[in-house]
Design goal:
It contains six helices and eleven strands. The chain is an alpha/beta fold. The N terminus is likely disordered. InterPro entries: DsrEFH-like, Se_metab_YedF, Sulphur_relay_DsrE/F-like.
Length: 221
């Protein structure tokens, strides 16, 4: 007796923003000479799947991702994380696998441009006005269409990314427009702020060195 294969169906998703996990190197992302990239997440744990997705989102020039999953829970997590880039997603689902087609909206991201933020204050002099200026800088920056490709926060700069930060709204706006916010994990631990991180992902010194090696414009604040 012949049986018919499961017929794929499509579903439109608008994912909800959520924090992005630490990015580590892996070989699950297949780069393409076109503007499309394939990400194979089949058989991966949710943590490794999130890391692979984040690496794919940071590939310069990629506008479309084809994401292959074999676990519905992982698929749901990936759909939610895609909100970081305001991606428009189409889910093609069969009985034992899922494929997500994600169209990324990074028109305003300034490629090869990064900021390094080493303090929660701007300029030298009075601490109070310095703090106000730094918060204002990020809140105003969040209103602009163009955003840097990434921002690395270290030392007291990590205080800008926690739950009660006056700059939080602006940073969330930057992240939603495709800016990769990287927060020094060692610094968060030093200030006992790891549990209060509210935006961005935890990064390491490797992320900072990668910025200096690969970006053509690095601005220190």
């Amino acid at each position: 007796m012949k049986t018919k294969a499961a017929k794929p169906f499509s579903r439109r998703w608008t994912a909800c923003p959520s924090p992005i996990p630490t990015c580590t190197q892996n070989n699950h992302v297949k780069e393409s000479i076109t503007m499309k990239s394939t990400v194979d997440l089949q058989g991966l744990t949710p943590e490794l799947a999130q890391q692979a997705l984040h690496q794919a989102l940071n590939q310069a020039g990629v506008t479309t991702l084809e994401i292959q999953c074999s676990d519905e829970a992982v698929t749901q997590t990936i759909l939610e994380l895609l909100a970081k880039s305001e991606a428009e997603c189409e889910l093609l689902s069969a009985k034992e696998s899922q494929v997500i087609i994600a169209n990324l909206n990074h028109d305003g991201v300034m490629d090869s441009t990064s900021l390094v933020v080493g303090s929660d204050q701007m300029g030298q002099g009075d601490d109070v006005i310095g703090t106000k200026l730094m918060n204002a800088f990020f809140n105003v920056s969040g209103d602009y269409k163009q955003v840097p490709q990434s921002i690395f926060f270290l030392n007291t700069g990590v205080k800008l990314t926690v739950a009660d930060s006056p700059a939080l709204g602006g940073l969330q706006a930057l992240q939603q427009k495709g800016c990769d916010l990287i927060v020094c994990g060692t610094c968060l631990d030093y200030f006992s702020l790891s549990e209060e991180l509210a935006v961005g992902r935890v990064g390491t010194m490797h992320d900072l060195i990668s910025i200096y090696h690969n970006q053509t414009k690095v601005i220190a604040l």
